[in-house]
Structures are given as C-alpha cells and as structure tokens.
Amino acid sequence: MGDYTNMSGYYDLIMTSGYYDYPKIVNELVAGPGFQSVLEIGCGTGLILEELASRKHDIDITGFDLTEAMLAIAKERLSKFSHVHLEHQNVTGLDLHQQYDLAFSYGGVWYFVMDGINEPFLVSHIYDHQANMSGWERVAKHIAPQGHLLLGVQGPHSNYATPIRNGYVYSQAITPLPHGFNKQYFLDDGPHRLMEQSIDYRTYPFAQACEILASMGLVYQPSAANAAQFVSFVKP
C-alpha cells in the first residue's frame, strides 16, 4: 500500500476542499445490498467511515490502513462511535479473523478510472504485481459468502493546480511508468511548499482486473446505473 505519511497532516484539508463528495459516496454504499458488517480497505483519516457511522448505528464497521499517521487521525475522529473498529495493517498480510458482508475501497488501495470514453482500468496504490495478488487474496478471504466487494470509480488523472481553503494551492503531476504512473502531490502557501508526496501506482486493464478478481472468487456485477460511485463484485 502507498504510505501517505508526508501528506497525512494536510489530507483532510485537501480531501474536504472538493476532492471527494463523501455524502454521495456513502449514499451509494447504504443504497446497495444490505449488510451488517463492513470493511473499508485503506480508511485513511476516517472521513468515509465517519459519514457511514453517523448514519448506520446498528452495524459492525471496521477500517484499516498502512499509514500510522493517517490512522491516528481516524482514531481520534471516530472515537465517539462504539461500533467502529480500526486496525493498523497492510492489505498484503491482512488478518482480521472475521468475514464481512461488504468490503469497499474508494481511493484507498484500489479503484477504477472511468471517463465514459476510454477503456476503464483499475488503479492500485501497490506497484508490485505479486503484492497486489496477495492483497486481493487476503481481502477475498475476509468477504463472507454472498458478500460484496465495491471498488470506487474516479475520473482520469491529470496535471493541475487549484486553490483550496486557507489560500493554499493544491497541485498534482502525473508521470507515466512502465506498468502505471507516478503521482506527485503538492501543497503550497504562496512561495512556501508545505507538503510533497510521491506515490507509484500500478494499473490493470478492466478485463484483466475482472479476470484476476474472478480467480479470487469475486465475480464482476455490471451496473445499469449512470455515474455509479462503485464497481461491484460478489462472492457467490
């Protein structure tokens, strides 16, 4: 998993300045198949889980993340919810001793890029292929029979800079790699650079991603919904 230690102190500021629409993400989670237990794969600072936990009080909610600095923020944010449990784990060795009705990742470890024009593809925060295989295998083992895996949908990555709160400017730069791309994140306060983070991402064509997940027992479920927030897989 990508380590976001450098970014952790500014993550909430960037993400809540229009980067993600958290109520919309959770709307689709709660509108999907019913679940009594849910696992977020790469929960970051807990922004999605906070929205989910505030709406769903009668379910078991678990999140894990690799970056300890992010998880520390999540623990403080979610401490008011007794039905939320957080773990410091790497997805490649995930071991929670439990199966879940629903597991999801929205920009956490894996997600799909879809723009309605080009062929969709999966993006992984893990650049190494074998590590991805291990991660998918571990996640599949944590999904209960008839359970679902939901992977978020985002638009294409591009180079840009945009003003956010406090007069700061967030920017990102994309560089192609043999099996994916490198993404650099920057946050500037005038001439002063506040944060810089670099992550290598691996990409997989849509068909290959579905084939790999099917080999793990997770079958792609096409959706008729327009502008869906997630791509769905079910464990028969």
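(the above was protein one; protein two follows)
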Amino acid sequence: MNQIKIQNLSKDYFDVKALKKININITEGSLFGILGPNGAGKTTLLRTLATLISPDEGTIKINNIDVIKEPRKIRELIGYVAQEIALDKILTGRELLDFQADLYHIDQSNKLERIELLINQLDMQNWIDRKCGTYSGGMKRRIDLAAGLLHLPKVLILDEPTVGLDIESRNIIWGLLNDLKKDGMTIILSSHYLDEIDKLADTVVIINDGKIIDQGNPTQLKNKFGGDRIILKVREFSDSLESEKVKKILEKIDGISQIVINASQGYSLNFIADRDKDLITKLKVELAFSKFKIFSLSQSQPSLDDVYLQATGKTLQDAELYMTGKRDLKKESKQSMR
C-alpha cells in the first residue's frame, strides 16, 4: 500500500528551482532512499514532507492526510531528524530525551521505558549522563535520532543522518534503521553516500537539479545496464576532440553501449561492455590500429553512480562540486523562514 503520495511537487527559492514536478509513491513499511548531490533538492523535499516549508505547487499525502492542509495531524505521525544538529549543551543526553518526551506528552511510565530502550538500541549507556556539549559528532547524531524516535512515529524522515560520522556510529544507526523497518516503520532517508542507499533502501529515487532522473529498486537499476562498467583513458588529461575520436571507435564495436564522455575526469570514456564477449582484447586491437594507447582501463560492476552518470554525464562527486557553486545558501535560508 502506498502510504505517501507526492504529486507534481515544485518549489522555487527566488531564481533557483529547487524542486521540479516531483512525483513519488512510498510503500508502507519500506525504507525509501533519496540519492543525489548536495544542492539537488533532497533537503527541500524532506522539509516539505515534514511540514516545515510549503511547496509552490503540488500535493503530498501521508496516510491520506494532506500535508499542506493538515500539518498538525501530520506532525503526530512523523519523526524528523534534520541534517543540522541543534542540542542544548547544558543538558545531559538523558535530560534532553526526558524534555523531548514531555513535549510529545508521553506519560511517565512509557517515557522512561522508551528512553531506556533507545539508550540501549543506540549504544549510548556510557555517555548518556554527560552534558551534550561534550559529545562528539557521532554521539550528537545518535541522541538527535533518539529524540526523533521517542514518540514511535509512523514515518521517520532522516536528512543525511550519517554524514561525517565514524564507522561505529554509522553501523549502529544502520542496524537500528533495519530493525525499525522490520517492525513496520516507514523510513525516508536522504544521502549522497552510494553504499548507504545501496545497502539500506528498498526503493531509491535519484535526484539531480531538482528533478527525478531515475527511481526503482537499487539492484534493478544497476542490472538494467546488462554488463560491466568500463572506464577508459587514452591519456591522463585528454581533450574533447580526442575523446570524441575514441568514442567513434567504441561505437563500432559490437557489445559496447551507453558511452559517456566525462569531462570532469580528464575526458575519460565510461561505457558498458557485455560480459559474455571478450571485448577488452578487441578494444585494445581497435585502439592500437587507430594509433591510440591505453593510459588506464578499469572494469567493475555497475553502481548507482553509473545510473547517475548515464543520465547526467557527471558522477555524484562531480555534481556536488557543480551544484555547490550554483547555490546561494543565505537566500535559501531567508526564503525557507517565510
């Protein structure tokens, strides 16, 4: 059953189109991943779901309740953990959770039980009674996640919950998310970490520049390539003219498809090669015949980054650098507070 329906969602920040006609259905009890570079529109989408900003166009429904028209009802259903962590430095972690539980009007017996359970689930026993101002980044993220889970939300919304975390904290959060999903909670997780989405998500939507470029099961998205991903360089730093010549050679080889020139990586050529054909040997022969040498050649199974590359001509890392340069964060912050 589709628990969340997003239709034709659009949002502008002055002259920046943060979201462009987004359409998404999210199944109840699933972990839904949103993958994209910084500046792609992930946070805007999540803040809209969390009733923190209003879209310019479109509708969102959670459990058939309109997010825009009935935000109070929605807030009873959701837990939201923002990318920016804001904790009271003077309170201990336990005091913070106790205060948060009172804001949710959780009765005394259930409150203490919920707090103790989350302390154990997130492995916070050794430092929960220290002041929050002394916490590391991983500790702050865990206590922030616990605060978002106190009231047992039907839908948990997480904006890059493991960014910059140590491996231990990351694995603890991953383990908890898997347990929550098994218990039937719907989880919406944004990330720019390929392995995180690949490992956790039942369904993923890939966003670039405010638009959906692909969506589906991560394994299915990768398998649609039907071969291995090859990255070829004929020189360490080539140019557009040379790479176009090499591309024409590749296009003539049966079994090579989906050729993309990646200008951000020295005009390397990225393409898919059928697994059941000895294409590498044939490729070397054809390049040598045209007087091209191979500077480097790598072969791997397709990843979600290849899905992104195929649609945009850039890797996620390349896109992050590009999108960061385009954004005016001060303008966006002012607009979101209106």
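Reviewer note on protein two: The first helix runs from residue 42 to 49.
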